[in-house]
Design a protein that fits this description.
This protein is mostly helical. The protein has 13 helices and four strands. The strands form two sheets. The protein has a two-stranded antiparallel sheet with strand order 1-2. A two-stranded antiparallel sheet has the order 3-4. A hairpin with a 4-residue loop joins strand 3 and strand 4. Helix 3 runs antiparallel to helix 4 and helix 4 packs antiparallel against helix 9.
């Protein structure tokens, strides 16, 4: 059951949890400008990808690893990759044509193979560009996660994604690297070192559904909208809401549920919508 459907038993418990875990195309330029405008405090060194933001929300601050019980974050991070590539103008859905195919029936096409500067994104982009015939969003989430029964398609799996993202965050000065002993084995962990970045991320998510809430999704910043959906799908959105007071928490949850009840097919047809973003949402919510 998703954490969004489970109501915590009181404010104290949520606060305790919070302290515990507390050459590009024009569209890419537009996405970058939008990102900069939406968070002017960001610098180039600390601007995070959707993947990194979702992982950071899921990481326990002091322990430096995600919950062992979270089996959703792996596929959620692959969804982040697809949306990030779409927002950067690298991917799109095939044209709908006269037959009006459903979002999840339409294939993902490479729009531009210009490098993104992110190794994981470029690896995913290369797979998608070279695959014929093209695959759907749902298929790519499964293939990139390694969730396929076809041994001929296992090479699509992106390995060690969480560790590679954590190392990116170490390079950006957000996390550090440590070794911890767990009786039978040693594990590399990545505790939080820059709490300002994580607090800014949490505040951004909270404000999106509280102070800066807009009832029409097409008016929301696309990256922020995607972050809310993918953080929910990765079962880490609760971590951003944990510090809230009871009334704020209830309101935030109510508005998230409003987003989750949207019809992706309808939203994708509205002006200024990104179809691939809504296809990923459909893959995780339907």
């Amino acid at each position: 059951m998703s954490s969004l459907t489970q109501r915590s038993s009181g404010l104290v418990q949520r606060r305790t949890e919070a302290s515990r875990s507390a050459a590009a195309v024009p569209e890419e330029e537009e996405a970058r400008r939008t990102d900069e405008d939406s968070d002017p405090e960001d610098s180039k060194e600390t601007r995070l990808t959707l993947m990194e933001e979702v992982l950071l929300l899921g990481l326990k601050d002091r322990e430096g690893y995600t919950s062992f019980w979270n089996d959703c974050i792996s596929s959620g991070l692959r969804g982040c990759m697809l949306i990030e590539l779409a927002l950067r103008g690298r991917l799109q859905l095939e044209n709908n044509g006269m037959r009006r195919k459903a979002l999840l029936a339409r294939k993902v096409l490479c729009k531009s193979d210009a490098p993104t500067g992110d190794v994981l994104l470029d690896e995913a982009l290369k797979h998608i560009k070279e695959t014929q015939p093209p695959e759907t969003v749902q298929s790519w989430v499964e293939l990139l996660s390694g969730e396929t029964w076809n041994p001929l398609k296992l090479h699509y799996q992106l390995r060690n994604v969480r560790e590679r993202l954590a190392k990116n965050l170490v390079e950006k000065g957000v996390l550090t690297t440590e070794k911890q002993n767990f009786l039978l084995f040693d594990m590399t962990t990545h505790p939080l070192t820059n709490s300002t970045i994580k607090h800014r991320l949490i505040r951004k998510v909270q404000e999106a559904v509280l102070d800066k809430w807009v009832s029409e999704p097409q008016r929301m910043d696309k990256r922020l909208l995607a972050l809310i959906f993918l953080a929910h799908s990765s079962d880490v959105l609760e971590n951003a809401f944990a510090p809230l007071l009871d009334e704020q928490y209830d309101l935030a949850m109510k508005r998230v549920r409003q987003l989750l009840e949207l019809e992706p097919e309808t939203e994708s047809a509205k002006p200024n919508a990104n179809e691939l973003l809504w296809a990923v949402v459909a893959a995780f919510t339907k």
